[in-house]
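Chapter summary example.
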Amino acid sequence: MNKQRIIIQEMTSRELKNQVWLTQMIWVIINTVLLIFLVDIAEFIALFEWDLTEIVLYGCLIGLLISIINSWMIQVFPKETWDDGGINEKVFREGSKLEIVLLCLVIAVMEEILFRGIIQSVFGYWIASLLFVVVHFRYLKKPLLLVSIIFLSFGIGYIFIFTSNLLVVIALHFVLDVTLALRIRRKGEWG
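The structure predicted for these 191 residues follows.
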């Protein structure tokens, strides 16, 4: 059993969720500092376009499609190929649906502001996409999860290039996370 799994098993669901919330607060601080020093605020605000067609078509529907593909992969491949060390199960199998939805929303907003709104806008597609993969380091030792996060990262980055709309990629990220999280809550585990 690896060290991460042991640590996760020793933590309660609440303790792990608190760590996730703490991580999101750290993202708020990082995002704020980077916005102050690297980004033209007017250009950044212009990235939030309320184009409902784009949000639904390129955000929600693609997020659902990716979620369906992930669910299929979970059914087809053995658990050891997609297991993230028990983190997602522990975070999402307990708690209210509202708590899960809020957590998924905050994660989607914070990560997409950082990786697409700031890093991709300032440093480019490749750097933002690669950093997104690296930040999801718990997937790096699992080939199936690694391939999935690489495709997801570069795909979201491309959709941001195509739409120039942060709301689209936030919607995509949120729909993907919340559908998988609610699946875990309903079934007690990924599968």
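To summarize the output: The chain has a mean pLDDT of 90.
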